[in-house]
Amino acid sequence: MSERRRSRMLSSPTRFSSIALLIASLGLLRPSFGQEQNLEVLSIEVEGNRTTSAALILSVCGLETGEELNAGAVQDAIKHIYGLGLFSDVQVFADPTSEGVNLIIRVEEYPRVAEIKIDGEKKIKDYIAHKENAQKEYAAHMKQMREEGKVE
User: Fold this and answer.
1) Any residues with CB less than 8 A from the CB of 105 and at least 6 apart, and which?
2) Which of 8, 12, 81, 141 could form a disulfide with 22 if both were Cys (CB 3.0 to 4.6 A apart)?
3) What digits encode the pLDDT tens for the residues 41-83?
4) For range 125-152, the mean pLDDT
């Protein structure tokens, strides 16, 4: 089984219990070998982003390397990333090591609109051209009528 599959997953911001389970499984809520285990965030990677930059996601999440991992920070990170309004799913995976924990933020972006096509666009352009021609014809007709003295 790969390291990623063995990772613990944190899902949506409303699922605090899964965050607590992850933190408990990492040993942050219980001592390990008679000592409290502090898990430092060693690295943070972003996966799944296509058009949104990883730098934006990392700056918004509030998690930083070198800091101690805690449930509240992870929950806030998920909320902040969702708050961008660009993602349909945000997950945080933790890969514990002997020195700390590597985090993977996996996002799924909403589909982007590539093109907007308005049917009937040619009809609108033709109508506008017709109106412009009609105005020009009317102006020419009125000029001719003035020259002939039929209209003042």
Assistant:
1) 44, 45, 46, 47, 57, 58, 61, 63, 77, 81, 90, 91, 92
2) 8
3) 999 999 999 999 999 999 999 999 999 988 888 999 999 999 9
4) 83
